[in-house]
Amino acid sequence: MPRHDDATVSFDVPRLWEDRTIVAYRAPTEGDAVAPNVVVTREQLPPDADFITFAENQLDEVARQLQGFVLHGTRELEVDGLPAVSVGFTSEDQGALVAQRMTMVQLPGGRVMTITMTAAQADLAQVAPLFERILDSFSFKRPEETA
Questions:
Q1: What are the residue ranges of helices labelled H in the chain?
Q2: Measured between alpha carbons, how far is 41 from 25 in angstroms, rounded to an integer?
Q3: What SS3 class is residue 64?
Q4: Does residue 145 have a pLDDT over 70?
Q5: Are the beta carbons of 98 and 39 closer than 8 angstroms?
Q6: By CB neighbour count within 10 A (0-12 exposed, 13-18 middle, 19+ buried), where does 105 fall?
Q7: Are strands 10-12 and 3-5 parallel, antiparallel or unpaired?
Q8: Tens digit of each residue's pLDDT (9 = 90 or more) over 6-34
Q9: Are 24 and 90 within 8 A, CB to CB?
Q10: C-alpha neighbours within 13 Å on the C-beta side of residue 11
Q11: N or C terminus: which one in the chain shows less Cβ crowding within 10 Å?
Q12: 121: Cα separation from own chain's centroid
């Protein structure tokens, strides 16, 4: 049986179970303000799905789920040399305007890592350079590096 192992915990995982690990970091904040945060998820591309279609479907789903969704831009880029799609949008959350940047990275083996950075729209100009630095710091292990 394979094991999940990170800095805090280690445990057995049944064979063939999909790793859907979520990593989340949040800046300190006072009161009810939207704290800048980064959430990283991963999932497997559906069989016979291509990366761009997957990214478009993810965006459609997010647009349906968020109140006041407004798309501000989509672009293709690379993150650590891997193909990626980045989407910027705003939505409303409990009366506050929230800005998000969702970057989907195509990993080897048909996996996708989604990096979602969120901040209050009013704070975006201040935190955008930090978000860019965080995204630029991502490095992914290639299959040949894990052997």
A1: 51-65, 124-136, 143-146
A2: 12
A3: helix
A4: no
A5: no
A6: buried
A7: antiparallel
A8: 888 899 999 888 888 899 999 998 776 78
A9: no
A10: 5
A11: C
A12: 18
